[in-house]
Amino acid sequence: MSTDGQLRFSLSERKAGSMSTPSAGNTVSVSNLEDFNDAVKSVHKTDSPTNWLLVGYDGSPDKIKLLSTGTKGINELIEHFDDSSMVYAILRVVDHVDNIPTDRFLYITFIGDNVKAIEKAKYSVNKTSVTKLLGHYNVEIIASVKSELSETEIMNKIQDASGSRNRSGDAAPTLRISTSSNTPTPSSSSSTTSITKTSGTTSGSKGPAVNTKSVGLIFNNELELKQIVEQVKTSSDPINWMLIGYEDKERLGLVGKGTGGLQELVSHLKAQNVNYGIVATTDVIDGIIQPKHAQITFVGVSVSPMVKGRLTTHRGKIDEFFSPIHVSLFSENPSQDLTDEILAQKVQQLKGMK
Questions:
Q1: Cα–Cα 20 to 30 A to 301, which of 176, 180, 225, 307?
Q2: Where can this protein be found (predicted)?
Q3: Which segments of the chain have a pLDDT < 70?
């Protein structure tokens, strides 16, 4: 988990750049608010040359500031990451769905390997507020090393979410990000990062690389749990959700499974617990019902900051366990941020709809 390795992660579209954002976690403010708001608007604007922004903490766990913006995509962005910092970024790329270019937005949380546990605890405490400030995104990645943010891994994640990736049994084509050959200026036309296919191949069923080298996380009856995940992902199976939770610090077990969808899953969530799950839903594309799958991360409001800090070392392995999925939902207060409406909005956003 980015120690998080990714994902994913992802709430409904919100208005970006509020001065403060009350939530179940901390309220985070922005020190250079005007510049921050301009950057958020710019990165979400298709014809803007700015295709990424980066924010970090400004001397206080409750205050962030805009650190930088850029026009050259992920490779330029990760130059600003280092192993001792925790930063947040929005990256705009272009996916091609049925040969139609469509903007996609990636929400990146980078928590360096040398960040102390007490600092990592900020991630879970401030998650909701920072997310609201940064606004709309389609895919979330939480990473601890730059290698987790390669162009290929990002493109795979984007195309897995949109459904534009090769879904045949053959190896999927390698994807790369290309940027405009012209040097962008504030008055230039769009320099949005775009995706093109190359002739290389990858192991199509393999998910994104994740950082699990120091994680001792164990899944009780792992084979059975994976079989349940596959049930959820099988359209003809009545099981449409499953939930796992901690049995001790490093061990996860089955909490429940069922046929009642998201709200039945939500009924098993308690404020003092941390849970991960998957739920099946559907979307209609050109009159055809398409299955979609959402990964759920729930961190109850009564979970201590120390425990929240430890969770960051588990996220990569959790994401690997559920991968591939279409959307991610993070929740602290299910009645507000884990509703059927929010899930439907996230699925619609895969098509560029609100």
A1: 225
A2: Cytoplasm, Cytoskeleton
A3: 1-25, 97-98, 122-124, 161-215, 351-354
Give the start-to-end residue ranges of the domains of the chain.
Answer: 218-349
Distance CA 271, CA 260 (A): 21
What pLDDT, in 10s, does the model give residues 24-75? 457 888 999 999 999 999 999 988 999 999 999 988 888 899 999 999 999 9
**Residues with Cβ within 8 Å of residue 100, at least 6 apart in sequence:** none
Q: Which of 28, 10, 9, 11 is nearest to 19 (CA)?
A: 28
* Interstrand relation of 139-143 and 100-111 (parallel, antiparallel or unpaired): parallel
What is the bridge-based pairing of β-strands 52-60 and 86-97? Answer: antiparallel
Helix (H, G, I), strand (E, B) or coil at 345: helix
CA distance 192 to 177: 10
Burial of residue 326 (CB within 10 Å: 0-12, 13-18, 19+) is buried
Q: Which neighbouring-strand residues pair with 276?
A: 244, 297
What's the length of the chain?
354
Whole-angstrom distance, CA of residue 301 vs CA of residue 37: 29
CATH topology of domain 218-349: Severin (3.40.20)
| Alpha carbons 81 and 100: distance in angstroms, whole number | 32
Q: Which amino acid is at 343?
A: L
Q: Is the C-alpha dihedral spanning 289, 323, 308, 148 positive or negative? A: negative
Q: CA 158, 161, 162, 167 torsion: positive or negative?
A: positive
